[in-house]
Amino acid sequence: YGTSITQGASASRPGLFYSNIISRELNCEILNYGFSGNANLEDQVARIIFRNKNIDLIIIDDEANAGMSDNLVNRLDRFYQVIKENGIDIPVIIVSRTPFAQDKFDELISNKNKTNKKYLREFSNKYNLNYLDGTLFFNNDDNGRAIDGVHQNDLKMNEIATCFIKYIKDNNFNHLKLSWIKLEKSYKNKTVKNNY
After folding, report:
1. pLDDT-derived band at 72, boundaries 50, 70, 90
2. Using an 8 Å Cβ cutoff, are 169 and 132 in contact?
3. How many CA atoms lie less than 13 Å away from 26 in the CB half-sphere?
4. Which of 175, 193, 179 is nearest to 58 (CA)?
5. What average pLDDT does the segment 30-41 reach?
6. Which end of the chain has the least Cβ crowding within 10 Å, N or C?
């Protein structure tokens, strides 16, 4: 569940959305609920998404939308409670947003991001959830990261996917119905520089 970046903007084609890269690498189905500009943690949306009980892992990456207003703080707890009410007891990864170009120039946006990250870490600790810092998806390379200062290009979509794959493996989500042989092969053939 997430924003336009989760949806796939601005990859050049659907196969290069980070969710689809992960799906191929891990040989598993991923349901992509990316809502461009509208990942605002409405509990009605959660009720529809999480009626599906055949889920092995949930990733919530909504800060870039919900965090720009008070929706993140006001709605995340209720959104998570809907998951629990549906009897889903599986790992959840809470992700903070990727860096924006504006973070360097707009103190208000930068401070809001710092406040949101603190809240997301505290929320994750409160419910014993996994937290992944979105600023660590990239290798400190600002050049060519995004087409507009926000939305990642193909190269950066691949870096996001690589970081998620590493995180999933390192955190031993063994219950996932994945082809670990395929995953092991992909790791041997790639250099992973991301350190979340």
Report:
1. very high
2. no
3. 26
4. 175
5. 95
6. C
Please give the single-letter amino acid code of residue 155: L
d(CA 151, CA 128): 30
Distance CA 6, CA 91 (A): 19
Distance CA 27, CA 182 (A): 8
Alpha carbon distance 136, 96 (integer Å): 10
- The amino acid sitting at 22 is I
State the chain's mean pLDDT as an integer: 86
Contacts of 72 (CB under 8 A, 6+ apart): 41, 62, 63, 66, 116, 119, 120
Instruction: Please report the pLDDT score of residue 142 as a whole number.
Output: 62
Per-residue DSSP letters for 59-76?
EEB-HHHHTTSSHHHHHH
Q: What is the pTM of this model?
A: 0.86
Using left for φ > 0, alpha for ψ between -120 and 50, and beta otherwise, residue 158 falls in: alpha
Alpha-carbon gap, residue 68 to 42, rounded angstroms: 15
Q: What residues contact 28, with CB distance under 8 A and at least 6 apart?
A: 56, 176, 177, 178, 179
Q: Residue type at 117? A: K
- 85: Cβ contacts below 8 Å, ≥ 6 apart: none
Q: Enumerate the β-bridge partners of residue 61.
A: 2
